[in-house]
Amino acid sequence: MIRADFALRHAGQLATMMPRPDDPLGRIKDGALAAHGGRVVWIGDDRDLESQVTLDGDLLDAAGACVIPGLVDAHTHPVFAGSRADEFAERVSGVTYHAQQSGERGIARTVRATREADVSALTELAAARANRFLANGTTTIEAKTGYGLDLDHEAKSLEVIRQLAEQTRLRVIPTFLGAHTVPPGVDRRAYVRSVIDEMLPAFRPWAVFCDAWCEASAFTAAEVRAVLGRAKELGYAIRVHAAQLAPGEGPDIAAELGASSADHLEFATPSQIAALAKAGTVAVLCPGANFTTHGPRPPIEAMREAKLAIAIASDLNPGTSNSESLPLAMSLACVQWGMTPAEVLTGATVHAAHSLKLDGLVGCLRRGSYADCVVVDAESPEAIPYYVGVNRVLQTVAGGALWEPS
Ligand code: NIG
Ligand code: FE
Fold it and tell me: Does domain 2-69+365-402 have CATH number 2.30.40.10?
């Protein structure tokens, strides 16, 4: 008998996300799973559970609802203070996002508000976001800095991410995004030098990934190569904000450096997409930001043709996508871009996990994976994006225990 301290039974459809020839979602009808110490120790047909597992702990009855792995959000900016609701209102009246990135507006405005907030205020804001992630079915996020933009305030943002991981049930993977934009009033060469010479070495123990935004309004290709090249030497794994608002070299740099992810990619060319696929980089697409900035559709067909793995992310941030809902991002990717429900589900689980180097641990359910799963009021896993903008999550299980909002 297998000993368990948590079990879930009667999942009408249990999507393991371990593909089989007959089903890319590897589903089990009337499925069950058992966990011990936060890991899955048994998964299979409900009728076999009692004869194979001894349970000493909580039992959750899904009562025929769908169960999927906890969603994995591979691109979020959860450490910020302040609001840019007025900029959102301007954009719906025709002002472009690009036009808002000057002076004390746009990202610079969030930087000011974030610098003014202390660790505990920022952690409280981030913890409220963690509650919304978990309520919407996300159990793992990648969390970027990028609104501190100097040594002290980026260190503060990394401390907030550390406390977020410690204080909440969300799994949080830290990314240093000092190269988000040049902060107001600072010489750009001096800033890039400070990222490379001071911040990168100082933050190595605290961040798994290093990211940079390659864009006319942010950093040039040469600057991004310098920052990310040094980051790679120091042992960071690499992510790149690439070709979001205009064509550029971001995707080439991601491929050259063997980045874990290249993100946004609206303006990526077919040859860049082929290079990313060859490098094993994951395309992390951000439908929320695309939607609110009225961006063009990313080249989905070229990505499919190149067999480039596509992840779907919320891109939670105060400027372009103030949403913790991956199901909403999945709906947008289906409706706006013509991705299939199976593609977006794979994108918000398996491919997102791959981009975070967490293959087999999150984004799927199998023996040994974290017991992170979500009970959803939907007739099938593929029906999740069909419910647009409403939260159909009934229960979130994180690390083999029910999560309750705090
Ligand atoms: O992913 N692309 C860069 N960063 C964010 C926007 C940040 C902001 O506007 O505050 C994004 O869309
Ligand atoms: Fe972003």
Answer: yes
